[in-house]
Amino acid sequence: MTGNARLEDLRRRVQQDPSSIAFAQLAEEYRRAGQLQEAVDVCRAGLTIHPGYLSARVTLGRALIELQQLEEAQVELERVLKSAAENLAAIRGLAEIHHRRGSLAEALSQYRAALALARNDPDLEQTVSDLTAQLEPATPEPDEGLSFEQATSELFVQPPAAEPQAGSPADQEPDPPPLFNSSRDAAADSARTRAVRTVAALESWLQAIHASRVERHA
């Protein structure tokens, strides 16, 4: 039986018996054929008699989404999930509502819930992957300390050799160092402090690289 013939057959059955549960099938056929308002009207008429018919309520919600009546669609789909928390079509419908509104975090949560029920669905997998890439920022570079190149340079740089004072003989015996040289001690402390900071910057940089690799392969 062709699509049109099936639709006509269902329409006759519902006209002959308005209380028939065939209204749900008729509404779904209307929705698939793009006759969205007809699908909504049939669903609402049938649900006044069979309010617990969940598949018809899902069809109603999906048709309302396509008509951009998102608030009404959300009410219908959430009503379905109160009775059937794992209704895949209702979960996907809610995800689409959030997605259309631009509420990407909520949409991703619902898409992940749907993917948990339909693990081999390539469309869901792609959607979850795309939204995850949009919402989860890349691993940030360390915002303090030196870059890797700078840190490496600091570790291996050699202090310049002291130049002889102008006018002094090259072979002049240098003055003996004072017993206590505060400027030299301060310079040594500064060098040690800088070395510690440089090592810390290298460690932070390497940890960021490791975390980024772990996340990519997770």
Walkthrough of the structure:
By secondary structure, the chain is mostly helical. It folds into 3 domains: about 1-65, Alpha Horseshoe (Serine Threonine Protein Phosphatase 5, Tetratricopeptide repeat), CATH 1.25.40; about 85-135, no CATH class; about 140-155 and about 190-218, no CATH class. The chain has helices at about 5-15, 20-30, 35-45, 55-65, 70-85, 90-100, 105-115, 120-135, 150-155, 180-215. α2 (about 20-30) packs antiparallel against α3 and α7 (about 105-115) runs antiparallel to α8 (about 120-135).
Structural class: mainly alpha
Largest beta-sheet details: none
Number of helices: 10
Provide the β-strand percentage band: under 5%
Summed over residues and divided by their number, the pLDDT gives a mean of 82
Can you summarize this structure?
The chain is mainly alpha-helical. It is built from 10 helices and no strands.
